[in-house]
Design brief:
This protein has 426 residues and is mainly α. 69% of the residues lie in helices and 1% in strands. The protein contains 16 helices and two strands. Helix 2 (16-38) crosses helix 5 (94-115) and helix 14 packs across helix 15 (393-401).
């Protein structure tokens, strides 16, 4: 959990977030105190990069529902951590880098908090920690007499040190993010770290390389390089925001399609959302990749859409009361409807096999996605404990256990047992 404007602050619920807040605050305060004692060097660079970081924090946004992104703030902070060139008489010390980053981060968050907009102090402190790591690694591998000049003899080692600093920042942030995901979503740590590294490779490296460009340009020609490099950063920010907007629209469309079965009476209110919630929890437990997790969630939401082609709804939306033939026909119709979208073929394949019995399906055909078995088990559990069934979790698990190996995939049922054992409830 992260501290945002749409959540009530409760330190007991922060978990690892409290550790991140404390670590980021300690690093920031220590850097600030050391800088007060030794004084600030190159005021102009500190002010300009501080403003960039603050502005970047003010325009942060959420892409993947798990972490706020601030590409301008991240790139500017990394660039300030790696300044070394003829345009600076004295490169900033490690303490000053942390102090500027921390103070600018707080300055950027303050307007969001005052305006009641979304902000995330935990993620912002993660950035402070990762920038500290980048600055420390860069300082450790860069000799004090190494500076930009007209030869490649200095340029190549400096670029290499910058890239190494960026990689260190990304890896540390991935480790912290994986720990948070393991705590919050019960994802196995190796799978969570894999997911974080994938995100770092796709998004983080774009911000890191922008930071390298900004640091190199500013080191060589001074603050005139800032507006030249900020333009690509603004384009990156715009592209990220457009992507985030498209993702939100995409998800809203899928959820609207899922609610059509509830409106028509073919599923109980909230049934599709609950099934998707459980399926996602099981997918996390089984270590599915983010792309497969998204397909699994959409498939669980849309698993009942084929029932709209049937003559009458089931009592209470309990599709388990239908015959095997009716359920499989509904799944095939639902898959055909989803395929017509032209962009959800992978989701359609999951839905198509979501009512296949394990013994005659995935047990004999490894090409059937395991996500189909997850949707099958999640829907069965929801209908047993939900409005139409009314069973206790233990009783529902006992009923599902009777179908292991025949109706349900044993691996998936084991995952359900672990998820329920950790206290999952609708």
């Amino acid at each position: 959990m992260s501290l945002t404007t749409d959540e009530t602050f409760d330190p007991r619920k922060l978990g690892s977030g409290a550790v991140i807040l404390c670590a980021g605050s300690v690093i920031g305060i220590a850097g600030f105190l050391v800088t007060l004692r030794h004084g600030v060097t190159e005021w102009a660079f500190a002010v300009v990069f501080g403003l960039l970081i603050a502005i970047g924090e003010m325009v942060q946004f959420r892409v993947d529902r798990s972490k706020n992104r601030a590409p301008i703030a991240t790139s500017a902070a990394l660039a300030y951590a790696m300044l070394r060139g003829p345009s600076l008489a004295d490169p900033p010390e490690l303490a000053q880098i942390i102090a500027v980053t921390w103070l600018a981060t707080l300055a950027g968050i303050a307007p969001l908090a005052i305006a009641g907009l979304r902000w995330d102090l935990v993620v912002s402190n993660r950035r402070v920690i990762s920038v500290w790591c980048a600055a420390a690694v860069f300082a450790a591998v860069t000799p004090s007499d190494l500076d930009w000049d007209s030869s490649w003899r200095h340029g190549i080692p400096l670029i290499g040190a910058m890239v190494l600093g960026v990689l260190a920042a990304g890896f540390v942030d991935a480790l912290v993010g994986a720990g948070q995901a393991t705590e919050r979503l019960n994802i196995p740590f190796p799978a969570a770290l894999r997911d974080e590294l994938v995100v770092m490779g796709r998004i983080g490296m774009a911000m890191g390389l922008s930071g390298v460009m900004l640091a190199a340009g500013t080191s060589l020609i001074g603050l005139w390089a800032v507006p030249l490099v900020v333009v690509p950063l603004l384009l990156t920010q715009f592209a990220f925001r457009r992507f985030a907007s498209a993702q939100r629209t995409y998800r809203a469309t899928v959820r609207s399609m899922a609610r059509s079965t509830e409106i028509a009476g073919f599923s109980s209110p909230g049934q599709n959302a609950r099934t998707a919630q459980l399926a996602v929890a099981m997918g996390h437990d089984m270590g599915l990749t983010p792309a497969r997790m998204e397909a699994l969630e959409y498939a669980a939401l849309l698993s009942g859409i084929g029932q709209l082609a049937l003559a009458d709804p089931s009592p209470g939306g309990a599709s388990l009361l239908r015959t095997r033939e009716e359920r499989q026909r509904a799944a095939e119709i639902g898959a055909s409807v989803i395929e017509r979208s032209g962009v959800l073929d992978h989701v359609a394949e999951i839905v198509r096999h979501s009512n296949d019995p394990y013994r005659h399906g995935r047990a004999n055909n490894a090409e059937i996605p395991v996500e189909s078995g997850i949707v099958n088990v999640a829907l069965a559990y929801e209908q047993l404990v939900g409005e139409s069934g009314g069973q206790s979790p233990d009783k529902a698990m006992e009923s599902i256990g009777l179908g292991i190996g025949a109706e349900y995939d044993p691996v998936v049922v084991d995952s359900l047992r672990r998820v329920i054992g950790r206290g999952f409830r609708f």
